[in-house]
Q: What sequence folds into this?
C-alpha cells in the first residue's frame, strides 16, 4: 500500500516550507495530485523526486547521472516551461477601448 501525504506532511518529509512545496507542485516540479481542494502526495513519488534532485547536484558537480534521470528532468522542465508560457500568455489581455 502506498503512503499518501498532505501538503504539510510532504513539506516535512522533503524538509521544505509548505509554501515552497505548493508552488513546486503547482508548477509540476514536485509530483502531486489535487483531486479536490487539497494536495495529495505519494511517498514513492516524493522519494523519486529526491533522487532526481540528488542526480542534478551530482551532474552539476561533475558526477554521473543516468539517461533515465536526465530524461525525467527534461520532461519536468519542459512541463514547467509550457505551464509558465501558458500562464503568461493567458494573463495578458487587451481590453477594448484602452
A:
Amino acid at each position: 500500500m502506498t503512503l499518501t501525504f498532505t501538503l504539510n506532511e510532504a513539506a516535512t518529509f522533503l524538509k521544505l516550507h509548505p509554501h515552497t512545496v505548493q508552488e513546486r507542485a503547482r508548477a509540476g516540479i514536485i509530483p502531486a495530485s489535487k483531486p479536490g481542494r487539497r494536495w495529495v502526495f505519494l511517498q514513492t513519488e516524493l522519494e523519486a523526486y529526491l533522487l532526481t534532485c540528488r542526480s542534478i547536484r551530482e551532474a552539476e558537480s561533475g558526477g554521473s547521472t543516468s539517461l533515465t534521470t536526465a530524461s525525467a528532468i527534461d520532461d519536468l522542465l519542459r512541463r514547467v516551461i509550457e505551464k509558465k508560457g501558458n500562464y503568461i500568455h493567458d494573463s495578458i489581455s487587451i481590453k477594448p477601448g484602452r
